[in-house]
Each structure stands twice: as structure tokens, then as C-alpha cells.
Amino acid sequence: MTVPHLTGNYAPVTEELTAYELPVTGTIPAELTGWYLRNGPNPHAAASKHWFLGDGMVHGVRLEGGRAVSYRNRWVRTTTFTEGARGRDSRGNRDLVAGVANTHVIRHAGRTLALVESSYPYELTCDLDTVGPHDFDGKLTTAVTAHPKTCPITGELHFFGYDVFEPYLTYHRADAAGNLDVSRTVEVPAATMHHDFNLTAQHVVFMDLPVCFDLESAQAGTGMPFRWNDDYQARLGVLRRDDPYGEIRWFPIDPCYVFHALNAHDEPGRIVLHVMRYPSMWRADSHDFKQATLWRWTIDLVTGTVREEQLDDRVAEFPRIDDRLAGLDTRFGHASVSGSSGALILYDLHKGVSSAHEFGPGRIPAEASFVAADENPGGDGYLMTYLYNADSDRSDLVILDAGELAAPPMATIHLPSRVPYGFHGNWLADG
Ligand SMILES: [Fe+2]
């Protein structure tokens, strides 16, 4: 039987490589000194039952003064990797150390963390050695989403954990120094799947959507233990950041699913969210993916209603922004187009238009990170992504000028292997 999530460029690579002084076509901007790290599933000892469940492998490229100094790919040495999956301990408690750490890699308070929503973060070195699980000095009581948000104003890290047992949803905040200073339960009526959430300068917005824990699916063990539920009311939950233990106000919306939010911001009396919205998700089984497009949700805090508008008709995923503008009114965001012919789309949210860089047939980008060219948030920068070439069965790291998106890549860094399709990552500049 063909297993789509283990074939083509979804298939895992089998070796951990280290290569130095990589060949480059074009010119790497000389001001870029740091690491590009991207995480994704790469099943290790046995085939994974779902794309989301493979052991995490981070692929990293070091850039320095116009040179592509090195490439490494390394599995994250979680306890699941080294000892096998454990699930719950002898008392039935969830083992929050066990996990695959396969979804994102971020930096907060000097730590580089590999994340998956079902476990504690795992700290890595930039050379991609695993330091170990990170539980915020023993204070952390839940798993951690793979999509924490760093507030560019306060430096705080806002995040949540969700579980299939109560409490289903818990909100956390760590200060800029990495101290966990808020943890509170968010009441939801069922164990819904929360992959991402939204942060503005004044609010946190949870997305409580109709993909629910499903015991039959869990017992079948053939994928993710969640299914679409026609009877569950989709809702957005608004928490004021200045009252983190206060009431959460819920707003009903039309049924849908969202894995990823682009950004959100406050306006007088309103909160505006931009998200990649699916009409539904996992109706038949958890391998049944639909297609996402860019939508805007405007929460009217006065009338208690939400206006829902589709903004773009091109199917895309992995939305990102210049993260220095997280929670603020960003003009630009971008997302990746996969399928048979790859592209990166740049959304101009103020003008309501989009443009694209078309890579063409058989050339499929991953998530792209915005890489700042200077100290000016929202100013010049680059889009950086791994690009798979089906003809050569290899991958490159490509750097595009975000301001001249249709132009050929400024630099194409040729890697010694392919980088399997994966999830999320970041450019981590030195200093
Ligand atoms: Fe994600």
C-alpha cells in the first residue's frame, strides 16, 4: 500500500550529514550572520502512522558574511527517539517529556527550543545537539504549543498547552528572561485540537474549533485521535493581556478549521485576525486534508459579532510575517504554495492584493521565514526557505528579496541532500 506521508519528498532521510562551505549560486547578503533552522517529521526507528507523528529532525544552515559555512541535519534526541514511545506513566499521568519535537524551532531568553504540541520543548544547541527537555524550572504543567508568540513590545513569550484530558486548555506566559509567570486554565466544553492561537498588543485570542478528540480514532491507532465534529460550535475566545486571569469572552463563528494564524492586531473596539482557514478538517479520517486560503476575522467587541471574509483565493499554508511586528498592524505577510508547482505568495493586507514568486513545476518551497535586512521593523528583508527540486531529488536553501519577490533568487545554497517536507523554522541571527 502506498503511504502518501512516507513517499516522495515526504519520505525520511536516513543519514545525519555535516557539510562545510556549501556551493552557492548568486550572492548571499553579507549582513546575514546566523542560523536558519527548520524542523519536520523524519521517522527514525519505524514508519509513522501520520505525517504529524514522525521523530523531529532539524535541518540547519550557518551563514556568515556572505558564506554558507555549514549544513547539518540532526534528529532531536527526545526520550521517544532514544527509548521509544511511552505515553502515560504508571499512575496514568501524561509523560510530558516523551514526544517527537518535530514541529517548530524558536529562540526565547537565549534558549533554542524544538517544539511539538504534545510534549515539553526540547532545548538544542545551534549545532543541533540535544540539551534536553525544558520545563521552565519545573513550573510547566502541560505540553507546549508549537506556535508560541513573542510580543515584540514586552519580549514576553505567550503560549498554551492542550490535552485530551482536563484541563483541556491552559494558557501560559513567560517573561523576557524566560520565567514562567502566568499559567491558567481556559474552560472549553470538549477536548478540541488547538494548533495555533493569536496575539495582539492587548489581547490573546484562542481558536476553539470543531476538531475534537475521538476515542474510536484513538483506539484504531491509524492516525491522529481527532475528528471533525458537526455538533461543536466554533468559537473565538478573547482574553485581555492586562487581566491574564480574567474572564475569557467567547464569540461564535462559522464552522472551519485553522492550523495557522498569520497575524492579529487591535483596532478601536475591534480585533482583526488573519488566518489560513479550511472549510473543514478530518471529516473522513485524519489523513483527509482540505485546502486553506487567507481569511480575515474582525471581532467586534461592542456588538459581540465576528465578520468573516475570504481575502485571497489561492490555496496556501505556512503563513509568516516579519516577527518584529507580531500583534501589530502588519502590511505584509507571506505563505507557501505546494502541490505540483510551488510558489511563495506575498499578501499586501493594506491594499488587499497579493503577488507571488513562482518556482514552477517540481520545485516546492517549505515555510519561508522573513529575514530582516536592517533594524527597521516592516522594512527591507528577505524570504528564506528550503526548496525541493523533484528533478534532482535535492534541496536548496533559497533567499529571495521580499521587496522584489518575482525576481530570481538572490542566492541559492546547494545542500548535499534533500530536506523532506516539514513544518516550521526560524532565522536565528547572531547577537
Ligand atoms: Fe504548525
UniProtKB/TrEMBL annotation:
Record EC number: 1.13.11.-
Keyword presence, Manganese: no
InterPro entries: Carotenoid_Oase
Taxonomic superkingdom: Bacteria
Range of residues in the leader sequence: none
Cofactor(s) needed: Fe(2+)
Record keywords, A-Z: Dioxygenase, Iron, Metal-binding, Oxidoreductase
Keyword Iron: yes
Gene Ontology MF terms in the entry: dioxygenase activity
Entry note: cofactor: Binds 1 Fe(2+) ion per subunit.
Pfam family, one: RPE65
Family: Belongs to the carotenoid oxygenase family.
Name of the protein described by the UniProt record: Dioxygenase
